[in-house]
Write a structure and sequence with these properties.
Helix content: 25-40%
Order of helices and strands: EEEHEHEHEEHEHEHEHEHEHEEH
Strand order of the largest sheet: 2-1-4-3-5-6-7-13
Shape: elongated
Distance between the termini: 27 Å
Length: 312
């Protein structure tokens, strides 16, 4: 049986979730930025399930507590433990460059997941195509606001972390799709919701007080889109606005589309299963590519029923 261990944040103690009578052939350290966000919970759940299919794998999971300095410390523990490979889902692009280089210099391959780090001194990056997601969201907004060449409306955009590459790419793709539309105006463009529902609620509440008309909200994940929708509902202005999110977790964003809180969401696949597949290929002597982009899909009123049916 494979072993999955969680690195306790306060004392860096190892807690056994399952036990193995013999030493594992491969030991893999995983630095997850946080374990509280629903998308991260799903990410970890799917990775754990995949690891259990391999008797020769031991997985250590460290909770970064949404802090770069904690992730740096956790990765250094993995280096000291001389694990066979490191997976890392970074909080931000710049702060982890040095410690990832330390791992690479120590001969430990590093696979970066979800959010890129600056530079290219890592073994592989696996994540969703955030530019494509942003463009799909922009095309959806274009259609909702009147169509190409005719779109009109006030937009609120709520960013994820300003230091993360997904947020910048989701903005860039969205803005590109709407760049030629003179009738479209950003009334809120660079507000950082830090991927949190409560922060998005506050941003939207302020935007509603400052603007008599808000036609569309584009948030960089579903919890923020939902928080904005709740703020509009509480202000009795929900019916006047379209809400677009990203992630499409079936029991979260998918259900919010089904129940009418979100107009649409865009699938952001978790990379854990693919990461395990790739790291095992590498450790078995196979070549792996530098980058793997995972596909997206638009989930709206026309596609949500089939999507939920297929993801029970």
């Amino acid at each position: 049986m494979s072993v999955i261990r969680c690195l306790k944040p306060a004392f860096l103690l190892l807690i056994f979730i399952s036990l193995n009578a013999t030493a594992a052939e491969y030991r893999i350290g995983f630095s997850q930025v946080t374990t509280t966000e629903p998308w991260r919970v799903l990410f970890n759940k799917q990775l754990r399930k995949a690891v259990k299919q391999h008797d020769n794998v031991e997985l250590y999971i460290a909770d970064g507590q949404d802090r770069t300095e904690k992730q740096v410390a956790d990765v250094r523990v993995f280096i000291q433990q001389k694990v066979d490979a490191i997976l890392i889902a970074p909080k931000e692009s710049a702060g982890l460059v040095s410690v990832v280089s330390e791992a690479m210099d120590a001969g430990i391959p590093v696979i970066v997941l979800d959010r890129k780090i600056s530079g290219d001194n890592y073994t592989q990056f696996i994540g969703g195509d955030n530019l494509a997601i942003g463009r799909q969201a922009g095309q959806a907004a274009l259609k909702l606001l009147g169509g190409k060449g005719h779109a009109k409306g006030n937009i609120v955009e709520i960013w994820g972390g300003m230091g993360s590459t997904p947020a910048h790419e989701r903005h860039q793709g969205f803005a590109e799709a709407l760049a030629s539309e003179a009738g479209v105006k950003w009334v809120v463009e660079r507000q950082d919701g830090d991927w949190k529902q409560d922060r998005a609620y506050d941003i939207m509440s302020t935007a509603l007080r400052a603007n008599k008309k808000i036609d569309l909200v584009y948030a960089h994940n579903d919890p923020m889109a939902f928080g904005a929708a709740l703020a509009a509902r509480d202000a009795k202005r929900f019916k006047d606005t379209y809400f677009l999110g990203v992630d499409a977790i079936p029991k979260e964003g998918g259900l919010w589309v089904k129940r009418g809180f979100l107009t649409a969401t865009f699938v952001y696949p978790t990379p854990g299963v693919k990461a395990l597949e790739q790291v095992l290929k590498l450790l078995n002597g196979e070549q792996i590519s530098k980058t793997i982009s995972l596909p997206t899909q638009t989930i709206d009123k026309d596609s949500v029923d089939l999507y939920l049916k297929n993801h029970k």
